[in-house]
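Students often ask why inverse folding is considered easier than folding. One informal answer: many sequences map to the same fold, so there is more than one right answer. In these notes we will look at a single instance of the problem. The structure comes first.
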């Protein structure tokens, strides 16, 4: 990243509800555009994360995906371990490059961690995400953004 400072970096992580159970939120912060995408996953698995990458590649087309998500920075949790499937499409075309934060260094994706604090204002830690839908995530994040702007 130091060699390519103009390359867009997307910070990625998950927000869990009840520990190790139920739905989670996959967050992807596009630093270049100041946009955070939220995907409500049915479970906290590597397969669910790969499904999101495949979905985005399908709806955006590979060229657009490569331009929007060239470098993805995340932590070394189990849901991000299927690196080959995240970096490459099922036909073997490279769609992005994955990089991992150093252990115990969540500050390396500090902007995303700060945004997670805002999510916790609406959904306190330990609250199950199972009652929520994908549409709820969009509504809550819009509400948080408006509150930030209004002070």
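Output (designed amino acids):
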């Amino acid at each position: 990243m130091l060699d390519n400072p103009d390359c867009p970096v997307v910070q990625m992580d998950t927000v869990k509800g009840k520990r190790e159970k139920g739905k989670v939120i996959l967050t992807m912060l596009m630093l270049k555009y100041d946009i955070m995408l939220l995907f409500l996953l049915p479970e906290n698995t590597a397969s669910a994360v790969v499904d999101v990458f495949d979905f985005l590649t399908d709806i955006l087309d590979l060229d657009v995906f490569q331009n929007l998500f060239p470098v993805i920075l995340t932590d070394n949790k189990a849901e991000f371990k299927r690196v080959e499937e995240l970096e490459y499409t099922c036909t073997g075309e490279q769609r992005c490059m994955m990089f991992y934060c150093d252990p115990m260094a969540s500050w390396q994706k500090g902007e995303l961690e700060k945004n997670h604090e805002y999510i916790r204002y609406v959904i306190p830690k330990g609250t199950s995400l199972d009652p929520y839908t994908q549409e709820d995530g969009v509504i809550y994040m819009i509400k948080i953004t408006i509150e930030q702007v209004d002070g």
